[in-house]
Amino acid sequence: MLLAGASGAIGRYLVPFLTDAGHEVIGITRTAGSLSGAGAREVVADVLDRAALLAALDGIQADAVIHQLTALAKPPAAYRDMRATNRLRAEGTSALIAAAKRVGATKFVAASFFGGYGFGDLGRRPLDESAAFGQEDGRNDAVLVALLSLEQQARAFGGMVLRYGLFYDTTTTTVSPVSHTWNGLVPSVHLKDAARAAVLALEKYQPGAIYNVADDRPTTYRERELVRARAAGIRPPQQFPDSLIRMTAPFGAMLLTRVSVSLDSSKARSELGWAPEFPSVFEGVGVVAPIADAVVAASAPAPKTVALPTREPVIEVNFDAILEFEPAADPEPVDTPVPEPVEGPTDSAPVPELVEGPTSTPTPAPIAKHPKAPAKPRVRAKPKDPFADMDAAIARIGAPRDE
């Protein structure tokens, strides 16, 4: 078996699985010695250098080629982070098909990705392999075209395609930031289960077939990262607003803030006999159910509370009682003694009589004001004569001289 991607994440599981199944593995790697101790022969070559790859395969024969190449050492944040992987899926697939013809292989198994169904909200109904794949959306065209190219080339050769969910295993050392509001689903698959699906594809080979390969329980990206962090004993992921994630990681934000996809893997079960050993991320990282439920509950965004306007209490009126109401009889008149008039000082001003207005409302008496003291007349000072003291000044100075 000629394996491209033998030193990658899935290659660590796939090489021993193939060896245990009785296959001899020839791994393609760009770095000499990267497969030492893995149980595979090395072919040092760059898949994107077609001439060098074919020259390195001179004299080698193989029954099958397995394409598991990506260039993603960590989750991609920007679109430029996908360029190398896009080339491996388009140009690299073409070079590996040429390599398959060079070594005489009749089987070709290629790894695809569920993102080809689209980077948007596709609902929660599981998608099977008949759903539209690789349709351009104007934003992720390069990624979608590369995935479609990989599948078309593989199937044109008579190969098989495995559409994987998001990979994970228990070797987590870091987790990525997540959205604290988006609850879209993402399908996942443990690397061990993904490698087993590739081995079964070789054993039950069907030219041109496509299979979804994902676990039974999709989760939100936030749940996935929180559980992985809990299992690894590291700090939980930071949660940010969607707008900030889209600004700092425009491509990664697709999965974190826009995508909701669920995969139907029943075809792989029925035709390949594949079933995930780990039905969900929780079992895959070894988190028991009670802890997993607590983590999921803690990851749920706080519900938005809307303050409703308070209403005044409604007063019920008994109209029957009103209709039956009889006014009470007028009370008996009571003689009120009139006080004797008190004589005031003789110099007080007479109190004006009340005058009834047009509405028969008594007009109150005007309020008496204290008279102001008469203002003193202002006396303008007489202007001073500037020459009044001229004679006295001359007398002090002395008689004027003729000169």
The biggest beta sheet, please? 7 strands, parallel
Order of helices and strands: EHEEHEHEHEEEEEHEEHEHHHHHHH
Distance between the termini: 140 Å
Number of strands: 13
**What would you report as the Rg, rounded to the nearest angstrom?**
48 Å
Q: Which architecture of the domain at 2-174 and 187-218 and 262-279 would the CATH scheme give at its second level?
A: 3-Layer(aba) Sandwich
Give the % helix. Answer: 25-40%
Specify the structural class.
alpha/beta
Q: Give the CA-based shape.
A: elongated
User: Which CATH class of the domain at 2-174 and 187-218 and 262-279 applies here?
Assistant: Alpha Beta
Q: What is the third-level CATH name, the topology of the domain at 2-174 and 187-218 and 262-279? A: Rossmann fold
Strand order of the largest sheet: 3-2-1-4-5-6-11
- Number of distinct helices: 13
Strand content: 5-15%
Overall mean confidence score, pLDDT:
84
How would you summarize the topology of this molecule?
Elements: E1 2-4, H1 11-20, E2 26-29, E3 41-44, H2 50-56, E4 64-67, H3 83-103, E5 107-113, H4 141-157, E6 160-164, E7 166-168, E8 178-179, E9 185-186, E10 188-190, H5 191-203, E11 210-213, E12 219-220, H6 221-232, E13 239-240, H7 242-248, H8 252-257, H9 266-272, H10 281-284, H11 289-299, H12 319-323, H13 390-397
Parallel strand pairs: 1-2, 1-4, 2-3, 4-5, 5-6, 6-11, 7-10, 8-13
Antiparallel strand pairs: 9-12
Helix pairs in contact: 1-5, 3-4, 6-11
